[in-house]
Amino acid sequence: MFQGETAITVDDKGRLAIPTAYRELVAETCGNVLVLTYNPFESGCLWLFPLAEWERVRDQVNALPSVKAVHRNLQMKLVGAAARIEPDSAARILLPASQRAAAGIEKKAVLLGMGGKFELWSELAHLAKIRQTISEDEISDEMSGLQL
After folding, report:
1. Which ranges of 16-78 would DSSP assign to H, the alpha helix?
2. pTM reported for the whole predicted model
3. For 104-132, how does the pLDDT look when each residue is reduced to its tens digit (9 = 90+)?
4. How far from the centroid of its chain's Cα atoms is residue 108's Cα?
5. What confidence score (pLDDT) does residue 29 get?
6. What architecture is domain 2-132?
7. How confident is the model at residue 148 (pLDDT cuts 50, 70, 90)?
8. CA-to-CA distance for 121 and 61, rounded, in angstroms?
9. Domain parsing of the chain, residue ranges
10. Whole-number Å distance between alpha carbons of 118 and 58
11. Cα(first)–Cα(last) distance of the chain, in Å?
12. What are the SpoVT-AbrB domain coordinates in residue numbering (predicted)?
């Protein structure tokens, strides 16, 4: 289970080091095989899945009927853009240039552990998102039962 927020530096070659706190967990969870793809719901963010979790998501998305444009769009953004990534000996992963550019990830990024996956945000998109508050009229029935 991944959780927590880590400021990340992306080097000139587009690599980032997996934080030390996650290295062992990533190795155990997925044998150091991750899948990077677009977050279809938030701009400025990529999703990074352990392989087994990715395969579950991929199979669900691919099972959607492709006769609907929204399904094809989701399939393109998730499955079509998916890149298999393995950390090197220094625990660095190479982010494809096209995905970095689309998400606006440059030198500074934020890695969020989100349970079964990571979210990799551009620093500016993360800052803008985190500054947004949840208004009272946005609270869902499911949220209203939480005891925070």
Report:
1. 20-30, 51-62, 69-75
2. 0.93
3. 999 999 999 999 999 999 999 999 999 99
4. 15
5. 87
6. 3-Layer(aba) Sandwich (3.40)
7. confident
8. 22
9. 2-132
10. 16
11. 21
12. 5-53, 82-125
